[in-house]
Design brief:
The protein has about 130 residues and is α+β, with helices and mostly antiparallel strands. The chain contains four helices and seven strands, in the order αββββαβαββα. Helix 3 crosses helix 4. It starts with 7 loop residues before the first helix and ends with a helix.
């Protein structure tokens, strides 16, 4: 297994998108319990969490915008340039909003639940075209 991929073409062609079947919600509050969260980010306005549907419901959060997660399986370098822009651009061209979260090993695109299949297919095409 090699190290992180840094070049734009390599990141895009190797992204191997993977669609998660969990429904996710972006939630916020001042002193919100972060346990069970996929992601936590501290902002001046409060703590932001990405919670699975059942936990968001249990804690009484707004669940009006369910999201799907598409993980980009390429181990992208933290200082790589262009992967987020390419993904967000391809989804924007398809009329699909996305929220990106970049973690240490992988990037994750969160899209509205009802667009998940179209978004997944769009990213598969982008990856295939970059590898051609």
């Amino acid at each position: 297994m090699g190290g992180p991929v840094k070049d734009r073409a390599g990141m895009i062609s190797g992204m191997a998108p993977e669609l998660d079947d969990t429904i996710w919600h972006f939630c916020t509050g001042r002193e919100v319990d972060p346990s069970g969260a996929l992601a936590v980010f501290e902002e001046a306005e409060g703590r932001s969490l990405v919670l699975p549907d059942d936990l968001a419901e249990l804690r009484g959060f707004d669940r009006s915008l369910p999201m799907a997660r598409i993980t980009l399986r390429v181990h992208s370098a933290l200082d790589g340039v262009g992967l987020t822009a390419a993904v967000a651009g391809a989804l924007a061209e398809a009329g699909i909003p996305c929220n990106m979260i970049a973690a240490y090993h992988h990037d994750h695109a969160f899209v509205p639940w009802e667009t998940r299949v179209q978004a997944f297919e769009t990213l598969q095409r982008l990856s295939q075209e970059a590898g051609a």
